[in-house]
Amino acid sequence: MRTKLYRLTMVILCVAGIFFTGQQASGQGMTVVIPAEASVSGQYFTLGDVAVINGDDAERTDNLRRIRLGHTPAPGHSYVINKELILARLQAANVLAATDITWNIPAQLAVTASSQTVSGKKLLEQAEQYLKATVIGDATITAIGEPQDILVPPGMITYKIMLPYGIRYNTPTNISVGVQVDDKVITQAVVRFEIKKYVQVAVAGKSLPAGEVITADNISFERRDIGRLLPGYFTDLAKIQGLSVKRPMAPGVVLTEGMLKKAVIITRGKPVNILAQIGNIQVMVAGTALQNGSAGQFIQVQNTNSKKVIIGRVIDDTTVRINM
């Protein structure tokens, strides 16, 4: 009986000794377990990003975690690092010589970059909202296709919209949508739109013969796509009223600057008043226009009394001013 009790006591002591010794060794040593697959983020990844590191020495553990193993692939992409390359990186960090670190390294480590998806629809919405706030007036905005979905790193997504070539009404408008994650520019996508803007422009309201003076009765205003118009169209009656057309115009023709000229208000042979300014004194004499003239144009006139031919500026349909 005593022999059996003695043997049982020794077994218990041995087990207790083994357990105690194991605990002590674990407290003094470190273990590093690298899995066969890992998900990482950032510009590069470290041992701490992929491995489970156990040990009581916090400083040594932190030093191990900071060992850089490689660059992170593009978001959502993967590549494989073999064991030899991992050992080379650890060797360069001077940690393999430590006898109290137990390493568990797979033959290969597959590294995948963490990512989130920015849909093409979201990019399109951002660009369209920007255009709607930028294009003022009567306009239509139509997307040309939809950009592809893109993968970006995890984080807070913001957008920066730019118009590299401005808004165009006669060709597609390109919008650059910059994608930022945590205020860092990641990539950009280009979205194309067809933008049509409409304005009320002056058109011939009826057939206009050459030389006819523009009035409110012989023109009208119609809604037109400015992307299809020649430069120099008019949207304000006041800017063209009193001008005359250079050539015959058919109804509905959009009037432009090149089609109009100032109307002739003084014709050759017409009696006119010749106004001369001498200091504070104004002198007006009778004369005859020797040329046709429009308001502001310089023409030749003849003094009725002296028969002298002089040049003056047309002021209105009866007056020509000369400089003394």
List its traits.
Type Iii Antifreeze Protein Isoform Hplc 12; alpha+beta; about 20% helix; five-stranded mixed beta barrel; about 325 residues; disordered N terminus; eubacterium ventriosum atcc fold; 3 domains; SH3 type barrels; five-stranded antiparallel β-sheet
Structure description:
The protein has 3 domains: 27-113, eubacterium ventriosum atcc domain (eubacterium ventriosum atcc fold), CATH 2.60.480.10; 115-262, Antifreeze-like/N-acetylneuraminic acid synthase C-terminal domain (Type Iii Antifreeze Protein Isoform Hplc 12); 264-323, SH3 type barrels (Roll). The protein is 20% helix and 41% strand. The protein contains 5 helices and 24 strands. The protein has helices at 2-28, 47-50, 58-65, 83-92, 120-134, and strands spanning 30-33, 37-40, 44-46, 52-54, 68-71, 78-82, 101-104, 108-113, 116-118, 138-144, 150-152, 157-162, 173-181, 184-204, 219-225, 243-245, 260-262, 264-266, 271-278, 281-289, 293-294, 298-303, 309-314, 319-323. Strands 10, 12, 13, 14 and 15 form a 5-stranded antiparallel beta sheet that branches. A 5-stranded mixed beta barrel has the order 19-20-22-23-24. It has a 3-stranded mixed beta sheet with strand order 4-1-7. It is rod-shaped, with a radius of gyration of 45 Å.
